[in-house]
Amino acid sequence: MKVIAGLGNPGRKYEKTRHNVGFQAVDKLSENLRVSWKKEKKSQIAETSADGEKIYLVKPLTFMNLSGEALQPLMDFYQIPAENLLVIYDDLDLEPGSLRIRIKGGHGGHNGLKSIFHDLGTRDFKRIRIGIGHPEPGDSVISHVLGTFTPEEKKKVEESIQLSARAAESWLSAPFAEVMNEYNRKN
Q1: What is the pLDDT of residue 41?
Q2: Which residues of 80-90 are buried (b: 16+ CB within 10 A; e: fewer)?
Q3: Are 119 and 69 in contact (CB under 8 A)?
Q4: What ranges do the domains of the chain cover?
Q5: Secondary structure of 47-108 in the HEC alphabet?
Q6: What is the pLDDT at residue 104?
Q7: Alpha carbon of 174 to those of 9, 37, 76, 148, 152: distances in Å?
Q8: DSSP secondary structure letter of residue 135
Q9: Per-residue pLDDT, 107
Q10: What local confidence, expressed as pLDDT, does residue 51 receive?
């Protein structure tokens, strides 16, 4: 079994914000795979399979800073090891539209990842980071991540969302190292 989780904040208020590119990526993946979402206790979940393996797409509904509270029960219930988890999320340190795919790493100050580290008790899961850029001097990080993209940024970010969805879909049938090599190069 594999889990592909996109991080974001639930509700219309946050739909198009920079912080929700992870949700947008798994939404795009669910469209590509033609699966629909159902609401569970702390998440929206879509189920499918690839090569006989069960796949769960997840959007935590606990708000970004508590993402681990939604993922940990699912991972425990189905006894899914952390190495079978792929998390897609926003990254301030990357320019808008940039994409970085990694096997594991630190949290880089991202509160959603901190929550997942805490609740899963490990950092050893796969990641796709979608660049949202740094706030302008004098702007707060919170207002930046909860703000929307400029029209120029939006076009770049939409391309990276589509690319991240394709990369995640590739992982369903290819080793993650191959996915990293291919999609980090495309970016």
Answers
A1: 87
A2: bebebbbbbbb
A3: yes
A4: 2-186
A5: EEEECCEEEEEEEECCCHHHHHHHHHHHHHHCCCCHHHEEEEEEECCCCCCCEEEECCCCCC
A6: 85
A7: 30, 25, 25, 34, 33
A8: P
A9: 85
A10: 87
CA distances from 161 to 20, 22, 48, 111 (A): 11, 8, 20, 21
Q: Which tokens belong to 58?
A: 């997840």
What confidence score (pLDDT) does residue 170 get? Answer: 96
pLDDT recorded at residue 26:
98
| Residue 63: predicted pLDDT | 92
CB-based contact 55:47 (threshold 8 Å): yes
Q: For residue 181, what is the enclosing H or E element? A: helix 176-186
Which architecture characterizes domain 2-186 according to CATH?
A: 3-Layer(aba) Sandwich (3.40)
Q: So which residues are the catalytic ones?
A: 19
Q: Which two tokens stand for residue 24?
A: 């947008």
How long a stretch of residues is the chain? 187
Which residue numbers in the chain have pLDDT < 70? 186-187
* DSSP at 18: G
Q: Give every strand in the sheet of 99-102, ordered side by side.
A: 38-39, 43-50, 53-60, 2-6, 85-91, 126-131, 99-102
122 phi, psi to nearest 5 deg = -155, 160
Q: What's the DSSP call for residue 136?
A: P
